[in-house]
Amino acid sequence: MFKENAVKLGICPIGWTNDDMPELGSGNTFEQCVSEMALAGFQGTEVGNKYPKDTQELKQALELRQLQIASAWFSSFLTTRPYKETEEAFIKHRDFLHEMGAKVIVVSEQGHSIQKEDVPLFEDKPHFNEQEWELLAEGLNTLGELAREKGMDIVFHHHMGTGVQTIEEIDKLMNITDEDKVSLLFDTGHLYLSGEDPLDVLKSHSYRIKHVHLKDVRDDVAAEVHQNKTAFLDGVREGMFTVPGNGDIDFGPIFETLAQMDYKGWMLVEAEQDPAIANPLEYAVIARNHIREKAKI
Prior knowledge:
This protein has helices at residues 30-40, 55-64, 83-99, 130-148, 167-176, 188-193, 198-204, 219-227, 232-238, 251-260, 280-295, and strands at 7-11, 44-46, 68-71, 73-76, 104-109, 153-157, 182-187, 209-214, 216-217, 241-242, 265-269. By secondary structure, it is α/β, with parallel strands linked by helices. It comes from Halobacillus shinanisalinarum.
């Protein structure tokens, strides 16, 4: 299906310990996390809050397990704070990832985000005004230039509870940013949970997609989150997300479309759950087996 060596498979540490809710998986160590990633058959990972900040220490731990760093989340605040604040933090983040050998930088705009707020996820989603769209586009183009200085790309992460969540908003952002400076992260779970068809984004923006997150959704839990006006993090606690093969997304057509568009890069399982309920290694193996079955890799 995919061309040989075109795709690398990784898994994010959020199934072991949650950066936004550190009490979830608080007893799980960094060493346990990366060891179980390797044991489950993955090649790489993104960076979590328990990972060593020293690049040499991190490299040694990963090399022992034959793992690589694919990227790491970066929160921008281009719509709500002075640009220079985001730039200074971004340069430090960029340099760390460059030292670790990553080729892409995951950027998510957190201005007005309700991801960490105790408000209804499906009802209180923020919307940018035209001035904020302009600030976002200008800022992302500049961050893209800074990434290119190191031979890297920024990949924008559309996300539930933010101003870039829907297909319409993704289309707008892609239209007002420079395609040579701003690429796209494709996240199956966030599109599906938002009520969108992930395939539509694949087909519309295939040439901009340079990073993929594989996240599944449990329809019954998502429906309760919607009905009960639940906040994002509470929805995570209740299990609205899970790994591919354990939820309701049909990944077969998604993998077929990615292969047909000759996708090259990382595909990372990212499924935030309570590890006390969803054993991280067990669910990592479920995901790896499902990808092997559906994507033939």
